[in-house]
Every structure is written in C-alpha cells, then in structure tokens.
Amino acid sequence: MASTGSLRKTSNELLATPLGNQVKLLPKVINGGIAGIIGVSVVFPLDLVKTRLQNQVVGPNGEKMYKSMFDCFKKTYRAEGYFGMYKGSGVNILLITPEKAIKLTANDLFRHKLSPGPGLPLPLEREMLAGGSAGACQIVITTPMELLKIQMQDAGRVAAAAKASGQEVPKISAWSLTRDLFKQRGILGLYQGTGATALRDVTFSVIYFPLFARLNDLGPKREDGSSVFWCSFLSGCVAGSAAALSVNPFDVVKTRLQAIKKAPGDPTYNGVLDCIKKTLQLEGPTAFFKGGACRMIVIAPLFGIAQTVYYLGVAEYLMGLK
Prior knowledge:
By secondary structure, the protein is an all-alpha fold. It contains 12 helices and no strands. Residues 1-23 have low confidence and may be disordered. The radius of gyration is 20 Å and the shape is elongated.
C-alpha cells in the first residue's frame, strides 16, 4: 500500500523513497481516523445485522429469529427504531481512529522495512508478511473495540429472545460493561476472544493488502503517476470483499466467543476449537458463512472509503503539506 505522503508513484515504486519522506505519522493517523469514522457511519447498520445473524442459533424445531439479512434489518428497525441500528457505534467511532491508523501505518512501515532495495518491487510473500504483521499490531485496539461493540449490537436480539421465554434482561451500556469486566477480570477482561480476533485480522490483512496494491497498480494513472479516485475506491472494495468472505468463518467464531450475554438456548464455548466443534455439530459447516454477504457489503465500502481517503491524503491538504 502506498504512502499518504505522495501520489506520484505506484505502490511498489513508493518503496524506493527515503523513509524520512515516506513516513509522516501524524497525517497517517488523521487519514486513518477520517476514513474510519466516515466508513463506520455509513455501514454500521449492516454491521449490526451481520453480528445478529452470526450469533443466532437455529432452535430445536428449526426456528430462527431472523430469516435473512433483510428480515433482520426490518425486525430490528421495527423493534428498536432508527437509532437502534446504531447501537455500539459510539465505541466503534471512538476506537476506529487508532485501529485504522495502526493498521494502515503499520502496513506502510513493514512494507518499507521488507523492501529488497531501492526501485525493486516487493515480492508477494513479503507483501503478505507486511500485511499480516500490520493485522497483528491492530488487535491491541480491535479486540476490546469488537468485544464492547458486539455486546451492544446483540443486546436487542438477546432481549427479544429472553422476553419470548418470560425473562428480563437489564439494559447495558458500553461504560457499565467495561467497568464490570475490569472489576471481574482486570484489563484481560476486555481481551476475551483475542485468539479468534488475531486469526481473523491477521488472515484478512495477509489477503487484503497485497490484493489491493496489485489491483490499484493495474488501474489507470494520472499524468503525475498517481492513482485515479475511482480506481483506489474500487480496488479497496474488491480487495475488502474478497478478504472479508475468506475470513468469515473466523469472524463467526470471534463474534460468538465475544458474546458475553447469551440468549436462552444459545450454547457456550470454551475457546476457539470448542466453538468450531460445537458449531459444526449443531449447525453444520454453512454456519461459518452466516452473515457472509452482509459482511462483504460492510467491508467493501468501508475499505474503499478508507483507501481512498488514505490515498488522496486528505490530512496532508488539511495540514497544508500539499
């Protein structure tokens, strides 16, 4: 992936630039934050639907709370209103800036460090290593962000299931949940599901970053050699969708492991392997692709927007660096 500091070179050509010229940390952080906030605001309702579809388990008589993505969206909107579709968005918007900044900046840094030399293209295996390393760096932020977000997103499904069985579920907030987890387990309480998060994020980045760089370099360029707007956007959408579908099984496992409040009848899991085993036994292999289409629709614009903002260097314009 190219540096935000220059649009005059392709992704691989940027590796030949001096580190001092290539890496400008503050603009990268700002670009990552802008991209993340815009992307999350646009796609969050779909992300909420994805979480609820992944967490729902088919009942003993084959009944489902949600029959499809559209059915989930309709029932959620009817029961909880417009703002109900944005439950958990506050946590996501708050933490998406450091998460995106770490991911995009780390990938640039690792690509530079793994460069075989000035002017030489980065081999595929090194691109994959750079992307995977960037994915590993982000989990320090991603894990607690996803944990808190999932509780808020899934609260409506859990409350509806509990009400149907004659139970009451107290309302929760991100702050009360954080406080309770910290009291019970310390800082480690916020890192439930770290293994599954690492599996998803590292694998996603191994696929996404090399694919994006190659797609973006294939597209047309301006006279100064920079990528055109629509090419960066489409490259981010295609690469994000492909990577999202590939890692959806890991995302299902992560979502289920991080769901602290369970609906009546939902199974409990003791780690990644136990979750995989029980899911296979109870629902079959297709369960690992629950919410897959929804996740692709979420990730495509999210990363398309992120890469476009990053490539356009919005922060550089705002800071007067361009």
